[in-house]
Design brief:
- It is elongated and about 70 Å long.
- The protein has a two-stranded antiparallel sheet with strand order 1-4. The protein has a two-stranded antiparallel sheet with strand order 2-3.
- The protein is built from 4 helices and 4 strands.
- 63% of the residues lie in helices and 6% in strands.
- Strand 2 (37-38) and strand 3 (44-45) form a beta hairpin.
- The mean pLDDT is 76.
């Protein structure tokens, strides 16, 4: 049963990556950003802009009428695309884990409240709350992961 739950949870967390994957048409010279990406001194790109090597390449990628994100100075545009993908995935993970943590906290509190002095139920409720706190720590880590990646990659 635990393997089934783990498999379903993994599928739920990975499924959005398949839905929002961008089709590959030859060499990927640009990407459409889904989140706001801030690389500090390298620049900031807003959502729905196109990160590309040059503006002419961005025009070929559907950039007419949208804002062009990065200039052709080195692989900065690829870093924007990488960080955008990481932020998009970690935002989904954060939202899903936040809902799971809230439900586990409510259930754990319910188990403790309805224990009626049974030490086994109180222990079970405390374990559920402990797992909820571990889930909260994982959700917060998912939210801060893009900042960690920017720190190491964006140097």
């Amino acid at each position: 049963m635990n393997k089934l739950i783990f498999g379903l949870l993994t599928l739920i967390l990975v499924f959005p990556l398949f839905i929002y994957a961008q089709p590959i048409t030859g060499a990927k010279d640009c990407c459409v950003l889904r989140t706001k990406v801030n690389l500090g001194s390298s620049g900031v790109c807003n959502a729905m802009s196109i990160a590309a090597v040059t503006s002419s390449v961005a025009g070929q990628c559907g950039g007419i009428g949208t804002s062009i994100c990065a200039s052709g100075t080195g692989p900065i545009w690829a870093t924007f695309c990488l960080i955008d993908s990481i932020q998009f995935a970690t935002n989904w993970i954060f939202y899903i884990l936040s809902v799971v943590v809230a439900l586990l906290a409510i259930y754990g509190a319910f188990v403790i409240t309805t224990a009626a002095g049974d030490p086994n139920k109180v222990t079970s409720g405390r374990q559920i709350l402990t797992f909820a706190l571990i889930g909260l720590a994982l959700a917060l880590f998912a939210k801060f992961l893009p900042s960690i990646v920017i720190f190491f990659v964006g140097r």
